[in-house]
Amino acid sequence: MNEPIIELQNVGIAFNAQLRLGAPRFWALEDVNIALPRGARLGVVGRNGAGKSTLLRVLAGILAPDRGRIRRGRASCQLLSLALGFVPYLSGRDNAILSGLMLGLRRREIERRLPAILEFSELGDFFEQPVSSYSTGMYARLGFSVAMQVEPDVLLIDEVLAVGDTEFQQKSGAALRERIHSGTTVVFVSHMDAQVRNVCDCAVWIEHGRSVMQGPVDEVLAAYHAAAPVAEVAQ
Amino acid sequence: MRLHWLELILFSTYAELRAERARSYLGFLWWIIEPAMNMATYYLVFAVVLKTGQPDYVPFLLIGLTLWQWFKSGVSHGGLSIWQQLNLIRQVRLPLQVFPSVQILADTVKFAFILSLLLVILWAYGYKPNITYFGLIPVLLVELIFTAAVAYLVAAFIPFVPDLRFVIEQVLQVVMFISGVVFSLDSIPPDLRRWFELNPIVELIDAGRDILMYARWPDWIALGRVTAISLAFFALGTYLIRRYTPRYVKLPT
User: Fold this and answer.
1) Which of B3, B162, B246 sits opposite A64 (nearest CB)?
2) What mean pLDDT comes out for the span A71-83?
3) Is the dihedral angle over the CA atoms B40, B43, B48, B49 positive or is it negative?
């Protein structure tokens, strides 16, 4: 196994529960140890509230650990964020540029990709219209098309694998699968075993803010379900 | 990387102005109508009703209000900006100075319209353009830095104490009255006046009036002092925003 691109050692993250003086802190992550090798596709499994989404934001560099440490190689990490920073009264084109800039692209890089965004989103003339006039499906298509333009070294995905109506779901799903399997390092949070098996080549199980186990997908899923209360499995 | 964030600031400013224009029937005409109505209100109250009768009161008032409103809108919009963008900040890593900067730049564009209107009114009143107009460049630049500095400082704290936003407008109102915007500070005894002049806004508005009404160059020493204060506050504001960034993302939704 090569040198990890990101390594978490005993990482803990505490939040304030309320906006109030002396409000108690709670630890969303208590003790997480993860080594993410370059090119790995890591699945994150765990119950609701286990800290999976928090973990993604730590990996993205948005949350700094309150204890433990993170070692990072030189790599850009980005959450797959749909419709990031969209402004309702702006046209699809302007929102694509704005969102792209927020995601770290240079202006000229986005301008160059606008034709691809327009084509993939299938918006046609609506591209020049304010996004407030879009249907939910159109909005999702634009958001996805823009998000796919960013090519981080480590792609972080929280549940979303496809968006839009049935037809676009297939198209967006295929595009994302292609990206995932193109050698990018991926961290994927999901509740669905089938998706994790499909996407990932290794997995980590998070329970109450602690990493319980990291290893091959089948072994981790088996251990996770063996420990799961029946009611939650049914869910 | 630096250039990239500059691109983001400039495009966001354009987006902000564009979106604002689209939100009303009269669009950007409001950038002129609203401050004009505001000026008319002060004019009616202080010049017509209260007869604050110093000579040249109208240009005195309009210059004060124009420079004041730029500062005030920059601080009140920029000051809230980080708090308003907390949801975005939770999703993506950005230097957070971007948000107040965008608001201040948008307000600066609107200020440019109002300043043009002010100049036209002054010329109509008989205050002709003169060589000291070049002195406006450093004066406006320093006001921009001071506005950004105060906006950064406010923006740094509002996310922790959002309640402060109810106080800000009131504080700004008080500051306006002690900044010599509508009343001349000349009536204040000199030893007391020294304290009022610690307020950078007083110096900036004085400099503006010197140039536009009396064709006098600004008091360079005073302007130098204000520049130093502005830069120090700006550095402090930037430092605080950067230092608190990891804590903003952890604030409860």
Assistant:
1) B246
2) 87
3) positive
A interface with B, Cβ–Cβ < 8 A, is: 13-19, 57, 60-64, 78-79, 81, 84-85, 87-90, 94, 97-98, 101-104, 106-107, 130
Residue B197 makes CB contacts below 8 A (sequence gap 6+) with B203, B222
B1 — contact with chain A (CB < 8 Å)?
Answer: no
Contact A85, A99 (CB under 8 A): yes
Helix (H, G, I), strand (E, B) or coil at A77: strand
Q: Is the pLDDT of residue B43 over 90?
A: no
B53 pLDDT tier (thresholds 50, 70, 90): low
Q: Which of B2, B92, B243 to mutate to test the interface with A (most CBs of A within 10 A)?
A: B92
What ranges make up the beta strands (E) of chain A?
A: 4-16, 25-37, 41-45, 67-72, 77-79, 154-158, 185-189, 202-207, 210-215
Task: Give chain B positions within 8 Å (CB) of A18.
Answer: 252
Which chain B residues have a beta carbon less than 8 Å from that of A14? 250
Based on the fold, state whether residues A90 and A178 are members of the same structural domain. Answer: yes
The whole domain housing A116 covers 81-183
Q: Are residues A85 and A179 in the same domain?
A: yes
A118 with A207, same domain: the answer is: no
Contacts of B7 in chain A (CB under 8 A): 101, 106-107
The pLDDT assigned to A233 comes to 46
Which of A166, A183, A200 is the last residue in one of the domains?
A183
Query: What letter represents residue B72's amino acid?
Result: K
Number of domains comprising chain A: 2
pLDDT tens digits, one per residue of A103-161: 889 999 999 999 999 999 999 999 999 999 999 889 999 999 999 988 889 999 988 77
B3 contact residues in A (CB cutoff 8 A)? 106
